[in-house]
Amino acid sequence: MTRLNLLMLIAVLFNISQTNGNLLAKVIGAVDHRVNGLKAALLPGHNKGQDQHKVICESQTKIIGCRDGGLIKITNAVYGRLNKLTCLNLLLLFSNTNCKSSSSLEKVRNSCEDKTHCVLSARSSVFGDPCPGTNKYLEVTYRCIPPVPETCGKFPKCHPSAVCVDNDHCECKAPNQGDGIKGCYPVCWCQASGDPHYIMFDGQRVDFMGTCKYTLSQYQKVGDTCSYAVEVKNEHRSGYTHVAYTRLVDIRVFDTTIRLHLQKRVYVNGKLVFLPYRTAQFEIALSGTYVRLETRCGLVVQFDGASSAIVQVPNVYGNDLTGICGNCNNNPNDDQKDYSRYEVVDDSDLQLQHCKKVEDFHPCAQNPTFKTEGETTSVCRVMDPTSTTQSAFSECFKSFRETAGLLFSSCVYDYCAFRVDNAEGKTLEKVLCDDVSDLSYLCAMGGITVKWRTSTLCPLPCGPNSHYSADMSACPATCVDREAPSKCTGNAVEGCECDTGYVLSNQRCVRVAECGCTDDDGQYYPLGTKFVSKDCSVVRQCTAVGNEMKIVVKETRDPCGTNAECKLQDGQYTCVCKARHKGDPLKGCTGTKVVKRL
């Protein structure tokens, strides 16, 4: 339609309007239909990857979509009017032509993104009215993206609650657990913290001060390769006898024993290993302030290398779980109350001949003043969900009010216990700060970042080339995997984050050029690390050779002496005298044989 034709039509319509309003409305409708039909005919086809356009006139509703299972990706959306001819209305031809709703793109994406089709309405009740009195329209630009592949590498397609990582394997989205293929499940969560307090799978809090070795959580089923046992060893510290702390955590799974020890040392079947450590069945890595073990069955065990241990397991195991953590069926009344029955053989590095009988200890009852002081101390009070004072955790309280209350009670308990033992200053502050850190981690599990530490309230010291972060990736970049953060499905956590240009080598932040070596089994060794062969005859070291890091032989040794054998001791292979023998294990050991009497 030329400009002259259009002007002539307007003149005719003006004359008609003077005599017959109904006829005018019909003519306008016909013209509107004609013009928009012509525009629709000129729109590009539904070719994947190419921009497609859809115009919806005010008060109309239309469907946009993709063929062959393609998914909609919205690139632009405008509700308003940017020209005179789109959705032509001759009565409003010279209305505002420079108006658009600021919420257009967001609302269209919320309705259509990643769908095969969607319904859109061009109405001010949906987008707001950017220019009253002007006839508006909705113009959408989108592309059709090929659907997600039905497979993830060599595996079938991932579970709906999982993502495909590197087209290699499926991972459940946090906080769910599972194999990512057959299922992703809500988790059962148990924590041992402080001195020590246990928050059980079903949510109840227990104070248990035994110093033996105990089963924290266990799932045992004949023929199920996902069976596991998590054990904890507790100890007294610094002469304080009323309370105990978690010294180490042992995990027995896949015919393997993993020990998470103080200072974040890790042992696998007795051998000291370096992080990250990976096998086909499990992975161990640093995550925030914790060392984290995760198995292919969804079991997650974390230890902060000081006193706090966390166990997470898919709730499909709920009724079959035993140990101090109890089962996981939302019924706290059917859990065992005699926790001493979960004592196991102590094979730790701090064995006691006799474990004392655990007696009930109620430190706040011994001096009510201590309880009041604990509730109002600057550290504990930030955890109180009943306080009317604004707290850094206020947002987290909305989701974890009950558990926050339990952790607040633990903090007050710890304050009373240490005051009873006459502990003051840094020792007491460290214990209370650890309690708050436990709540911070719980909030992070729920996707809530809490920036609670300050220069005067529980500052977290960090090592060289790192700094404190309240929202660092749960999967930090390492010498083994520098792209780990980009593939991480876990929520952000607090901890010591490597500075720009540095990555984790075991527990240290180093430049990439200072990263260590990987052996034939895929296990990592920091630069300079020495390790001994299983027969104690060869010492190897991760060394810089030119521009490469290589494992080289540094020393060869004679076999162990007579009556000596090569065994793991403190995580390294070394020659030791056999039982009932003594002497130099390198030169030979002597001893008296036991003679059996007939």
Automatic annotation (TrEMBL):
Ranges of residues in domain SUEL-type lectin: 56-145
Cellular-component GO terms for this entry: extracellular matrix; extracellular space
Entry-linked InterPro entries: Lectin_gal-bd_dom, Lectin_gal-bd_sf, Mucin_vWF_Thrombospondin_sf, Ser_inhib-like_sf, TIL_dom, TILa_dom, VWF_type-D
UniProt-listed CDD domains: Gal_Rha_Lectin_SUL-I-like (cd22827), TIL (cd19941)
Pfam families: SUEL_Lectin, TIL, TILa, VWD
Matches recorded under SUPFAM superfamilies: Serine protease inhibitors (SSF57567)
SMART domains named among the record's database cross-references: VWD
Domain of life the protein comes from: Eukaryota
Keyword field: Disulfide bond, Glycoprotein, Signal
Native species: Mizuhopecten yessoensis (Japanese scallop)
Residue intervals of the VWFD domain: 188-365
PROSITE patterns the UniProt entry points to: SUEL_LECTIN (PS50228), VWFD (PS51233)
Region forming the signal peptide: 1-21
Gene Ontology MF annotations: carbohydrate binding
Descriptive protein name: Zonadhesin
